[in-house]
Amino acid sequence: MKPVIIAEKPSQAKAYADAFKVKKNEGFFDVQPCEAFPQGAYITWGIGHLVELRDPKSHDPKWTKWSLQTLPILPVEFQFQVAKGKAKQFGIIKKLIYETDTVINACDVDREGSNIFYSIFDYTRARNKTIKRLWINSLEVDEVRKGFLQLQDNRKDLLMYEEAKARQMSDWLVGMNGSRLYTLLIQQKGIREVFSIGRVQSPTVYLIYQRALEIERFVPEAFFELEGTFQAEHGSYKGKVKGKMKAIEEAQELLQKHLINGTLPGTVQQLKKEDKKILPPKLHALSTIQATANRKWKYSPAKVLSTMQSLYEKKLVTYPRTDTQFITPNEFSYLESQVEAYQQLIQQPFDVVSRKPSKRYVDSSKVQEHYAIIPTKKIPTERVLAGLPSEERNLYEEVLRTTLAMFHSNYLYQETTVTTEVNGLAFFSTGKTEIDKGWKELFSNDKEPKGTKEPTLPKLVLHEQVKSKVAIKEGQTTPPKPYTEGQLIAMMKTCGKFVEDATETEILKEVEGLGTEATRSGIIETIKRHGYIEVNKNIVAITEKGRVLCEAIEGNLLASPAMTAKWEAYLKKIGTGTGSSELFLGSIAKFLNHLIQEVPAQLHDKTFHMTTTETSVARKEIATCPTCQKGTIISRKNFYGCSAYKEGCKQTFPANYLKKRLSDKHIEDLCTQGKTQGIKGFVSKTGKNFDAKLVLTNGQLKLDFL
């Protein structure tokens, strides 16, 4: 019987077909007899997720209507279905599987690829078939042929499937239950929105929200530095006294202590020169090329992944969904043998420093399913390169240049440290002189990040006398910067630093944070689609809807990266055969039951404010205006105002007061009683948190401290 090869999608099947002599049929290729397949074979394909989990109402009609009374949604048995519009292709696959005795899983070599294959295979209800696994990192013809000659058994593949299936089911359970629970409870507060909850997406949104709060609550503080401008024989330079002072008086006292006033002579007291080097960069994993491409060209992580996938299918780069930055000696061997040909692609020849593998790049112990992203053996023609879309060309060159850097020399420079003394007060200056550009010449078109370029120093001599002019420079502390879209990938990967518990931090390090290398860009796209964040000119901002979600889950495990990490750690155990899917899904069920019992009480006293929902909600009538007694105070976009403003009433209330969001209830109390209950979380101008009541006096807000 001819074995049946199942690829993940048509483009992948076509790449396999290119390695053999085939006849094209509807829904499959017929491979002619060859060394790998003496009797021939059939190559067919899924269309991504051909088989998917059914929605709650398809499991049980009682889950058709969204209701708190029908929670939790915990199916006795999960049910699957063929995805809409894909029944014809599923029928072709099923027929081919039933007519063979051997099926080869040739989907992507990762958990999701295993999930796609087995969800299709299991749904056919086929029995007594031998299953083999194609395990390759490149779609080049010779790699494909070699891979089919060295097929593996499916033991590891089955464990990856168990892990992927447990992840899929747990995500479904958390999403279906959490989304209904929070949406219904928040809607009771008057906000007519649907709030999607996710095992990974919710803590990701919460981390972005935390950064927004840090920025909003940041109170700038002035600081003072002493800066000297020095005129030497061969030019001028600047230096600073170490340390920042909080009060100008401190700086003035220091100047008085050293009798520094106006222009004085200074002396070059120390002159230290040190040769330094920067090693070539490590090879790219998916997350590093996503971060690099976002910094250089503002490409979104999702755009980078889809572009890299396209380059992979064009056989120009190796498998992109990798989390390692190492290769094995096999890959190094072909790269080394073709290094001059790769150089010609970018028209930048250089002398190869070493043709021996370095542990910085080549380490088989650091390579599991996949190795780092590198160029394939295929050397594209100038015409092929010129025909690539600009994004593909940029990313291919980035991979190529980073790989070539491994064969280049170190970047060498000399760092000069100068200590200039004025009346016994030391000023420090640092300068940099480039000695050998080395590997950096491969990236000569890259702009250096702002603030990283060190000033050049004039030629100086030890004990040289210089003229000095000293000034007090005032500066201000600056708030944290909002994330760029590329930084979200790193934030998700290293979120352990946001967790105080040492054990939880270790777990987050072990599982590499939130999500996986292959899923993080998809999670970012999901939270954008749900309206929790906005990206404008590459800067990420939390939306009002995102704030409401975070205020709702605050203090709950759904906001905790550590909880997701613990789940991820156990999922990895399932993937290694040391964990149980049943136990894991049982713990998810307990968590959801706990959530359903606790959350209504947690949200009972919370108030939410959102101005961008339906007009009826955004313009909600609060109370009769306390000033004119004719109009009504209405909730508007960024404030509360009187409906009689056209008749001259100027009564308004801010939506935010001393960095505290005021709720409809607060405004109602001010209008009807002239004061509020105690409110927690005001922030003073000095950055201190305090609690107080608000009092309305002659139309103005006053504080009544508790």
In helices, the fraction of residues equals: 25-40%
Rounded Rg: 32 Å
Mean pLDDT over the residues: 90
DSSP strand count: 25
Largest sheet: 6 strands, mixed
Structural class: alpha+beta
Number of domains: 5
Strand order of the largest sheet: 2-3-4-1-7-8
State the CATH class of the largest domain.
Mainly Alpha
Descriptors:
706 residues, alpha+beta, Rossmann fold, Topoisomerase I, domain 2, Topoisomerase I, domain 3, 5 domains, six-stranded antiparallel beta sheet, 37% helix, flat
Summarize the model shown.
The chain is an alpha+beta fold. The chain is built from 22 helices and 25 strands.
Blueprint (SSEs and pairs):
Layout: E1 4-7, H1 10-17, E2 22-25, E3 28-31, E4 41-45, E5 51-53, H2 56-59, E6 80-82, H3 87-98, E7 102-105, H4 111-124, E8 130-133, H5 141-149, H6 155-187, H7 201-217, E9 222-232, E10 235-240, H8 248-257, E11 263-278, H9 286-297, H10 301-313, H11 329-337, H12 339-345, H13 382-386, H14 390-405, E12 411-422, E13 425-436, E14 465-476, H15 485-493, H16 502-511, H17 520-529, E15 533-536, E16 539-542, H18 544-553, H19 561-576, H20 581-604, H21 615-618, E17 621-624, E18 632-635, E19 639-642, E20 652-654, E21 656-657, E22 660-661, H22 664-673, E23 679-683, E24 689-697, E25 700-705
Parallel strand pairs: 1-4, 1-7, 7-8
Antiparallel strand pairs: 2-3, 3-4, 5-6, 9-10, 9-14, 11-12, 11-14, 12-13, 15-16, 17-18, 18-19, 19-20, 21-22, 23-24, 24-25
Helix pairs in contact: 4-6, 6-19, 6-20, 7-17, 7-18, 9-10, 9-15, 10-14, 16-19
